[in-house]
């Protein structure tokens, strides 16, 4: 219990990833909705809200997840709870024409549809799913040109990373997407594992995931880390935790693992920002950061 209380908010965001694998169902049905530019939209995840805004539909967004932080305009939009604590009454009060859901939220979809609301499912558990959601939202809300332009822009940037990766030496990279902070050492590391879009970002950037097991979001013990012995480490931290604990202190935690190649060779990098936990259109910026981390510095 003490450990759970100390976990940063990044692990709360991670909970949505974990839940999505437990609840995943690929046979979701969507309720119909006439294509119109006048519909009111509720987005049940930060990532789907970002897609809506990226397609110039922000003026039609009337409700968002309580975890939504981007773009800044979401601060003025009504909150409808989070992934695990949906405020159904708040959604009903907003009278949306369509609710954009993660594909794992089928139970919520049934409740909404019983109340006469249309739904749209998106898949944000993979790069292909994120890209596909852009097209899907664009088609549903008559933003095909915007969706096509956004996809082309993102695909061009992804291709550029792939090309650069072909000339990079293969290295084992550990991507920590959450851990206990403020205890003076590295403990409770949750890593990008066998599934999820973070694992794909490593592959596209030209790295081999240092974790080779079958779990999607493994929690790694000291023994695991020592056996893994990554050559590069990226430690993801959200803004709130970075401010609360201090960047230098977070980086210093890794001194508790002097045996690791990444630590010995100054190849530990801190990736700070809430965007890196959100599988929306900004994922390409995370990809580019990963691909450039060794060239642009930041290691301690």
Overview of this structure, please?
This protein has helices spanning about 1-5, 10-25, 45-55, 90-95, 105-115, 125-140, 145-165, 195-205, 220-230, 240-245, 245-250, 260-265, 285-295; strands spanning about 40-45, 60-65, 80, 100, 120, 170-180, 185-190, 210, 220, 230-235, 270. By secondary structure, it is α/β, with parallel strands linked by helices. α6 (about 125-140) packs antiparallel against α7 (about 145-165) and α7 packs parallel to α13. The strands form 2 sheets. Strands 6, 7, 8, 9, 10 and 11 form a 6-stranded mixed beta sheet that branches. Strands 3-2-1-4-5 form a 5-stranded parallel beta sheet, with helices on both faces. It has 2 domains: about 25-160, Rossmann fold, CATH 3.40.50.1980; about 170-295, 3-Layer(aba) Sandwich (Rossmann fold). Mean pLDDT is about 90; it is low at about 1-30.
